[in-house]
Amino acid sequence: MSVVEATVESIAAAARTLREGGLVAFPTETVYGLGGDATNERAVAAIFEAKNRPQFNPLISHVPDAATARAFVRWNDTAEKLASTLWPGPLTLVLPRSEGSPIALLATAGLDTVAIRAPSHPIAQALMRATGRPIAAPSANRSGEVSPTRPEHVAQSLGARAPMILDGGPCLVGVESTVLDLSGDMPILLRPGGATREAIEAAIGPIALSDAIPTGDAARKSPGQLHSHYAPSRPVRLEATSVSRDEGLLAFGDTVPTGAMLTMNLSPSGNLGEAAANLFAMMRALDRPGIGRIAVMPVPHTGLGLAINDRLRRAAADDDSNRQR
After folding, report:
1. Helix 272-286, helix 41-51: angle, nearest 10
2. Whether residue 169 sits in one domain with residue 47
3. What CATH number has the domain bearing residue 267?
């Protein structure tokens, strides 16, 4: 763990670390974020691992401006109005993923929407521009702990899990960004935060509140709101130790049953970080015509395995009839 003053040299070093797949904690105007290359599945998996995050909830991807955001999401007039008045700033927009968007599926929890924002902090801006890639960054603390607003908070919470911390002093806003869903017909406030409802409505008119949306046994569409996950159209059978010819097998480890129509291995070496990085892409690859069901081998319930298994349970709709030991 290294807390370093944010200088031109240290920001350049941090940008190199991010481009190489490493993690960097950095200040925004809201809270300190634990950043990784949002286009790199392994880097995103490392964020979940460092935070000991129990679920694969979508992460916010940080960009310097609206022009950059347009490369990753399907921009619309409402987003343009908000960005022109409230970006850069503490407002996150949830928008449909653009075709060919390089944002990692793990960063969006497998959804076809992307949570994106342009922070105003000068150090965050300098880091994003030096990196040249979107930075996925939840708050830089262990899951369930208080969000950090000073570099020492990051060090106390994450220790060596945050190998580099850019020191930008205390955060000015001190609460997380507001999250606004623009992927449907009506803008919906998913999480209140640093951008006020009044400021948002002054720019675009009335918005709906998230409590108007039915909730249930589903995963988060963004930080702060329960909503539907990507779910495969094929049934999912968990804890599979054998496989049928009409099944696609999502394997794990070096001992894999034979006979599946198609097999994809999350990690032949049993590495949970590699498995997390591959999870959503491989689930989508197995969700194809001709495959009757997706069988999933057991994954350990430790470390990132907790999050992997949480996502797999949701994909199987927590239906015990889909499980076989």
Report:
1. 130
2. yes
3. 3.40.50.11030
